[in-house]
Design goal:
alpha+beta, 6-stranded mixed beta barrel, 4-stranded mixed sheet
Length: 239
Amino acid sequence: MANVQQMKATMRPAGSKGAARAERRAGRVPGVIYGDKKDPISISVDHAELKQRIYAGHFLATIYELEIDGAKHRVIPRDFHLDAVKDLPVHVDFLRLGAGARIRVRIPVHVKNADQAPGVKRGGTVNIVTHTIEVLCAPEDIPGAIEVDISGLEINYSKHLDDVVLPPNVKVVGRSDQTLITIVPPSGYAEEMKAAAEAAATAATAAAAATAAGAPAEGAAPAAGGAAAAAGGGGGDKK
């Protein structure tokens, strides 16, 4: 079950840019709660707290109970805007979660057992191709992460989404064959493989040539003996 976080908010005047700027000057971030077939509510939250929660990670996949004037609203963050220069939050949107709701949410991909992967032991590097997966599920079923075990992965091989067993009641949105993780070869790996292949080909050619050269010599004696026998047989016929 998803962990529910507690957070406080306050009501603010709706539809006023001046009021929103005043909230920011007061160290608060304007936002809105919407959804569940109810009227939207204009709110504001503490700037420092929101910043900390955003940069802690998983903000858009975390359920919150927002307390507003003593009433609690079960929500999930849907979007937030950052200042283009300072990267500080300037607005946040929350989706209200009603009973029986199913929502789309992006879940981070986590790598398991990378130290056991043969490709990593041979110098390869783990490359996360897809960092998040969009899934459809009930709020209480939101997984913390999509765990991908790569303990058997070799260099130049990949793990795909359909290789992973998802938690119960969680459905993938979109393609299920997308590549999640691959093992990238180390620098010089291609040249080493090419040199090894060329050396093996040269050795095979040399072995084939030696075998071919030795075949007539081994067959020469029987051929000569056969000719002599034929000659002897011919002489006997003449007698």
